[in-house]
Amino acid sequence: MTAPIHTTNLPQSLLQATEPIEHLLETASLYLHVPFCHTRCHYCDFNTFAGLLPLREPYVRALLQEIALVGEQSRQPDGRLRRSRTVFFGGGTPSLLTVNQLTRLLHACFASFAIDADAEITMEANPGTLSLEQLKGIRSAGINRLSMGAQSFDAGLLKTLGRIHSPEEITQAVQSARAAGFTSLNLDFMFGLPDQTMQHWQQTLDQALALRPEHLSLYSLIIEEGTPFFDWVHAGNIIPGDEDLCADMYEYADERLRSEGYINYEISNWALPGHHSRHNLTYWQNLPYLGLGTGAASSFANHRFSNERDPDTYIKLVKSGQRPTVEDELVEKEQAMSETAFLGLRTAMGIHLPTFEQRFHQTFAAFVGDRLHFVDQAGLLEESEDWLRLSTRGRLLGNEVFLRLLPD
Ligand code: SF4
Fold first, then answer.
1. What residue owns the CA closest to ligand 1's atom 3?
2. Ligand 1 site-directed mutation target among 39, 43, 46, most atoms within 8 Å of CB
3. Helix (H) or strand (E) holding 212
4. Which of 249, 189, 250 is nearest to 218 (CA)?
5. Which annotated residues bind S-adenosyl-L-methionine 2 (predicted)?
6. Which CATH code, of 1.10.10.920, 3.40.50.2000, 3.70.10.10, 2.120.10.80, is assigned to 333-405?
7. Which CATH class is domain 16-284?
8. pLDDT tens across 143-178, in order?
């Protein structure tokens, strides 16, 4: 699918590196995985489990232990706690934890890491699991951003997806979040769903925009192996939206959102000025992050590693004092350069060339060599004020540009 990003009108706060790269490389964003869901949605292949709610407290205790362990092991060389600019409770459904459990986890993060006073602290939530009382509790605990998996305002489509909430519960959840004091909300929606028409999509966007969330993430449906959707598609029981319809839906959404003041700062993400997700930008700028909990992935100190995926085994490993890491890969400099370029070019800002050079002690031009000449001549890139980004034509050709530009 083509994915145009409009780079005009980006706020300076997003375009400029906010801090020198050497400072940012010393930080680590924190991701805490909560692997519990009421039921499994029909399209989902995340590391989440239904029917394991009795494990919540033992899991939280193990996570508390892992936070302390990783905090200790990731201290700065001079012994100071590792600085963190963002904390993200993801899942799964973190809103299935009690306020007490979420508060303990957050306190543990503050005890084991040097978390910025103005840190972005996000919790993912399922609109069918939220009450006003709970929202007030988590807001008081320090969570200042809520990301809700709304997916659609069409009751029939929500049922097809296997979601547990109704369209009305999305609106109620947003109203309760506002009443609880949240001023930074993200809503996720999906397009390209089976039997979803352009009219469904337009109505969903109308209702979403009426709630004026600060951030919207719009994803096209991907049929993942091992999910009920995969089996149903192969049996011919459901037919996802075709590529052309998906492209039309994306373009419609982009134009509509931009006309309402949202900035498309990454392929699938739009934000009102000042409300881009700092946590997700950590990933797209290839900055360090530490993932805690089952299956969580980390990128830290030139290593990429991930945790045991099974909650029972994870709890046992942590309880016995072991690190629950199961995979660990050294990231060579060349690979880190390629990934930084690839991830940067997916964003509206592109690659900040002086930062790239500072970070890798090599210019981007020297890194890509003759390949840059070819891509440049074809008009696939544009450069302005130290930033290199895909041109409109480059964006339309998407993966082709990455293949031609970056080493294998
Ligand atoms: S609520 Fe989210 S994490 Fe849980 S099964 Fe559904 S899509 Fe997956």
1. 92
2. 46
3. none
4. 189
5. 92-93, 151, 163, 188
6. 1.10.10.920
7. alpha beta
8. 999 999 999 999 999 999 999 999 999 999 999 999
